[in-house]
Amino acid sequence: MILSFTAKTAWRGLIANKMRSFLTVLGIVIGITAIIMVMSLGQGAQNLILSQIQGMGSKTVVVLPGREPKGPTDSLQTFFAESLKEKDLEALRKKSNVPTAKEVMPLVFGSDSASYKNETYRLTLLGSSEKISDVFDLGIDKGAFFSENDIRGRSDVVVIGSKVKEKLFGESEALGERIRVGERNLRIIGILPQKGQVSFFNFDEVALLPYTTAQQYIFGIKHFHRIIIEADSEKNIDRTVSDAKATIRETHNVTNPDKDDFYIETQADIASRLGTITNVLTLFLAAIAAISLLVGGIGIMNIMLVSVTERTREIGLRKALGATEKNILFQFLLEAVFLTGVGGIIGIVLGVSLSLAISLAIQFFSTIDWPLGISFLAIFLGIGVSGIIGIVFGIYPAKKASEKSPIEALRYE
């Protein structure tokens, strides 16, 4: 009964100054909204990364050039490193060297514009072997993939993604036509089905060509950006990695592992590394968003102190009529918790709504299959934090109100 009366009294005190109460909780609303958005979008990014990695298959390992990066910024050096060559590919393909390797294929990649008649479209160029279709489970919609003969002969042939076909040819037939990339006229021999994002490549927007053609005529390089190895089973992943390391060290004449000019990552390694990066980034952004909660808490305390001063006569009258210090403290503490609670609820609704809206916008305006996801941890944190802020920043004004002398309070003008 007493609790109900105190709660009603606290609520009446808040709605008596609606605008002031709204402005007071604004910092809490912004903080909770930002935290839920950051954590939900961070969770979406992690889910996207996992789905991309799974798209390559759990039996796949990736050989990368250069020394293993120690931090996120070091990863750029792998694109410019030139330590993976044809001799490494040939050695890894020998069954005697890596008996558990089912497929071994190189990757070279970059971006350029492709043109056909008056149409131009910027796409991703991906040079590889004929095995890329099997490793990435691409399939073919029309035509065929290039062959070993095309690779040996550095043929000017290309397989294009569904969006490339749509942008350059529309409803017209594309098979047999030639698109110009750089200084080369590449003949279209195949069209991929709609595939979307697989392992960080959007195969709807790619042009696949023999790696030898890409190396010599498009990129002007003699090295690989990646070598992909598909193990014959998941249980042989560790052995595949071990044999691949030993093979490349032998071709590079390296005896000390600390001198390796390459490194190998399994899908689990990639997931762990990228997951750590997204976690750190999410926590960092959430910490920044939490600053607005601190500011909001200070605003709560400030406005409650003003309220205590304005309502001094009310406090004195209530004490004169029998209200205890505990009743007064509880009333003003409840007002602070109500304020932050309302701010928390509004923040949660806004945070969830904006997170879903941003996720849908990413899906609609880009080719990224961004997963819809809401961080329920963030929602529970929002509820808990808003309540804690109300208690922490409301206790001092509430205590100050409860300690006022009824005689002095009734004299106050």
TrEMBL record:
It is a multi-pass membrane protein. GO terms for molecular function: transmembrane transporter activity. Its main location: membrane. One of its GO terms (cellular component) is plasma membrane. The chain crosses the membrane at residues 21-42, 283-308, 329-362, 374-396. Residues 287-406 form the ABC3 transporter permease C-terminal domain. InterPro entries: ABC3_permease_C, MacB_PCD, Macrolide_Exporter_MacB. Keywords: Cell membrane, Membrane, Transmembrane, Transmembrane helix. The keyword Metal-binding does not apply. Residues 21-245 form the MacB-like periplasmic core domain. It is found in: Cell membrane. Belongs to the ABC-4 integral membrane protein family. PANTHER family: ABC TRANSPORTER PERMEASE YTRF, MEMBRANE COMPONENT OF TRANSPORTER-RELATED. This is Multidrug ABC transporter substrate-binding protein. It comes from Candidatus Liptonbacteria bacterium RIFOXYB1_FULL_36_10.
